[in-house]
Amino acid sequence: MVALMCMGVILFRYYWVSTESDYDILVQKPINRWKPHDVILWVEHLGPWSNQYRETFHKAQINGSFLAHLRDEELSAFPFHVKNPSHRQVILEEIRKIKDHKVKLPQNLWEYKAANLGKSLFLQFGLREFPRVTFLYLYLFDYEDTFLPFIHTCCPAYITNAMQDIPPDHVPQEPSQRQWVEFRVKVCLMPYLLLVDFAWQWLSVHCWISWIVIGNSMVMSVMEYVYVWTLWRRRQMRTLPKTILQKTLNMFFVVLLWPLMPQFFCDFEFYCGLFFSSFIYISVRKPFLKLAQE
To answer: How far apart are CA 26 and CA 191, in angstroms?
Structure first.
C-alpha cells in the first residue's frame, strides 16, 4: 500500500509539473508586478465568456499596474472594446478584489494550495482525523476567511421570493438560523457528510477529484461509527482522549514545521491525504477493526 501511494503521488506530481501548471503564479505575485502575459492569463481565468477578449488584451500589452487603474469608459473604448456592460462590471469587480487583496484570489484547489500551503496541510489532516475539533477551530480563529465560505457552500441559504430582488452585495453574510441548525446536526452526527456536500458543489470545477473526496468521506463516515462502536463495546472509551491528544500534537508538529520541510515532502503529504485519506484512515484504525470482527 505504501509503495502504491508513493508511486501514485510521484505520477500525479510528474503530471502537473510536465503540464507546466500556472496555479501558483497569479495567487502569489502582486498585481503591480504582473507582466502582459500574466494579465492575459488572468483574463482567461475569468471564465469561458472572457475568451473573446484574450486577443484584445494580448494586442494591448498592458501590465498589472495599468490594469489596476482601468475604468469603465476605458474598457469600452479602444483598444479593449468591451461593449457588454455586464462584462465590464465583472472585470472591474475582479480588479477591485485584486487591488484589495494585492493578489488574485484562489479560484480552485490548486491555486488555494499554492497560496495557503500551511493551511492546506492543516485542513487536510484535521478534517480527516478530527473534523469536529477542526470545525470548532475554524469557527473560533478563522471565521471570515474559511468558516463562512465553508458553511455557505455546505449548507446553502434558502432564497425566498422576498430575497430575490435584493442585490448580492446586500445579502446578509451571516448564516441564517436554518443554516446553523443544519450545520450543527451534520457536524455532530456525520461530520464527513459536510465534506461530501462541499465536494459536490465543486464537481463542475474538479470533477474526478471531487468524486475521490466524496468516496473517501463516505468510507470514513462508516469507519468512524465502527471505530467508536468498537471502543464502546470493549469499554475502551477512556483511551479516546489520549489518542486525540497524540494526533493533535502530530498535526501541529507538521503544520508548524512545514516552512522548513522540502517542497516535495509537503506535496507528498498533501496528495496522500487528498487521494488516499480513506486508506490512511483505515490503516491507522486497523487494530480496532480486527477487534470488531471478533
So the answer is: 33
Question: Taking the model in full, what pTM does it have?
Answer: 0.74
Dist. CA 48–CA 291, nearest whole Å: 54
Lookup: cell for 37:
502575459
- From CA 152, how far away is CA 175, in angstroms rounded? 7
For 142, counting Cβ atoms within 10 Å of its Cβ (0-12 exposed, 13-18 middle, 19+ buried), the class is middle
Q: Cβ distance 32 to 68 under 8 Å?
A: yes
On whether the CB atoms of residues 220 and 128 are closer than 8 A, the answer is yes
At which residue does the C-alpha cell 456536500 appear?
197
- φ and ψ of 155, to 5 deg: -125, 75
Terminus-to-terminus CA distance in the chain, angstroms? Answer: 25
**How many DSSP H helices and E strands does the chain contain?**
17, 0
Task: Give burial (CB, 10 Å; 0-12/13-18/19+) of 131.
Answer: buried
- State whether residue 236 is helix, strand or coil: coil
Residues 284, 114, 52: CA angle, nearest 5 degrees: 130
Closest CA to 226 of 148, 292, 136: 292
Q: Which of the residues in the chain have pLDDT under 50?
A: 18-20, 161-172, 291-292
Q: How distant, in Å, are the alpha carbons of 50, 79, 165 from that of 45?
A: 8, 20, 29
Closest CA to 46 of 2, 131, 1, 105: 105
Residue 27, classed as helix, strand or coil, is: coil
- Check residue 138 and give its pLDDT: 92
CA 144, CA 174: separation in Å to the nearest integer? 10
Chain centroid, CA 116 distance in Å: 10
The model's pLDDT over 4-51, given as tens digits with 9 standing for 90+, comes to 666 666 666 655 554 445 555 678 788 888 888 888 888 888 878 888
Contacts of 6 (CB under 8 A, 6+ apart): 268
